[in-house]
Amino acid sequence: MADLQSISAALEALLAGVNPVEAESVSLDAAAGRVLAADVMATLNVPPFDNSAMDGYALRASDAGQWLPISQRIAAGAKSAPLAPGSCARIFTGGELPEGADCVVMQERVSVEADKALIPANIPVDDNVRRQGRDVRQGECLLKKGLRLEAAALGHLAGQGITHVSVRSRPRVALLSTGDEIVDPGTPLAPGQIYNSNRPMLKRLLENFGADVVRVMSVPDDYTQTVALLTQAAAEADVVVSTGGVSVGEEDHVKAALEQLGQMDLWRLAIRPGKPLALGRVPRDDGSEARFIGLPGNPVSGFVGAWLFLRPLMGVLMACPALAELPALTATANFDTSTGPRQHYMRVSLRFTPVGLVADAFADQNSGVLSSCIEADAFAVIPPNDQVRQGDTVNCLWLAV
């Protein structure tokens, strides 16, 4: 097994010399899931003025503990007047705190008769007050570049009145399926044929990782056509992903086509599943090159390879650190296993229990059993030549996007 390469060596080869894709401006409505290409600076304070955190009465804390006349009523969105000395103001959630007031008492604690309110004693300064700039201060960095824009970040941008934002372009990906035995759903199966499960699976994963799948191709078991389609794919995409055709069979032409067209950086990994994996580059006519990842044809191997290689590549292409590395965690193994000379990536589900996180392994870890991936929350990473017993602590990679 000396010729098999490690995950770390494969990632180093894959990511060497990769530069981020260009930036583009998109509307905030279209920015969900995109990666910021530049820092965003705050132009407004949030909140923009001191306001009440609840419905109640605004007053000076020093006036608490007595009956106070109600000098004004302040609704959310209305302009307040300075608070008259020795008085309180009826105020509603979000209402502007009047000048002179320094606290708000919730209405449930106040007795009201006519135009007066009995305020309880010992109300602390700033009680139930949201001060100007508590969340965001004008001139500060609102969001840093490299952040993937999800719900809270989008709300943060909207709170500044922002309508457009600079984000990284989606890396363009061409997805190739190799093999005469692979046919698309909807086509009657001939003897020896199977339906293409890799294409929809990988397309969805790539889209979740931030890519734009610009081309899907079926590649027959023919060397000349493999070269032609690989050349076409590289001309249209930043990354070319193939499934199958990278092993040592007589009809596996992708590896040979890649070596003729461009550069093979690495082939065959010391991992299970997914040993036959090819990494390389395909040059274009303009002198640039497309990155190539040849995943195994077995669906589980493709699933594992996508998380281990396609996700970090998309992260580097979009300069998004959170995508470039899978989150690591530890769990208690609820299974027994042992490994040979290859590192095993076991599909596990995770349970939160009173004693901590527990990993349950799927019974059949064969690389052809795609059902083991459906409810998988993580990969339990079992080192080579190791043995795990129930109750042992195992390192896991959390499958999060």
Remind me, CATH topology of the largest domain? Molybdenum Cofactor Biosythetic Enzyme, Chain A
Structural class, please?
alpha/beta
Spatial order of strands in the largest sheet: 7-4-6-5-9-8
CA distance, first residue to last residue:
33 Å
Number of helices: 8
Function: Catalyzes the insertion of molybdate into adenylated molybdopterin with the concomitant release of AMP.
Pathway: Cofactor biosynthesis; molybdopterin biosynthesis
Keywords: Magnesium, Metal-binding, Molybdenum, Molybdenum cofactor biosynthesis, Transferase
Cofactor: Mg(2+)
Topology:
Layout: H1 7-15, E1 23-27, E2 40-41, E3 51-52, E4 56-59, E5 67-74, E6 88-91, E7 103-106, E8 111-113, E9 116-118, E10 129-130, E11 141-143, H2 151-158, E12 164-168, E13 172-178, E14 182-183, E15 194-195, H3 198-208, E16 212-219, H4 223-236, E17 239-243, H5 254-261, E18 263-267, E19 271-272, E20 278-283, E21 289-295, H6 299-317, H7 321-324, E22 328-333, E23 337-338, E24 343-353, E25 356-361, H8 371-374, E26 378-382, E27 387-388, E28 393-398
Parallel strand pairs: 5-6, 13-16, 13-17, 14-15, 17-21, 19-24, 22-25
Antiparallel strand pairs: 1-12, 2-11, 3-10, 4-6, 4-7, 5-9, 8-9, 18-20, 20-21, 22-28, 23-27, 24-25, 24-26, 26-28
Helix pairs in contact: 1-6, 3-6, 4-5
Catalytic activity: adenylyl-molybdopterin + molybdate = Mo-molybdopterin + AMP + H(+)
Keywords: Magnesium, Metal-binding, Molybdenum, Molybdenum cofactor biosynthesis, Transferase
Cofactor: Mg(2+)
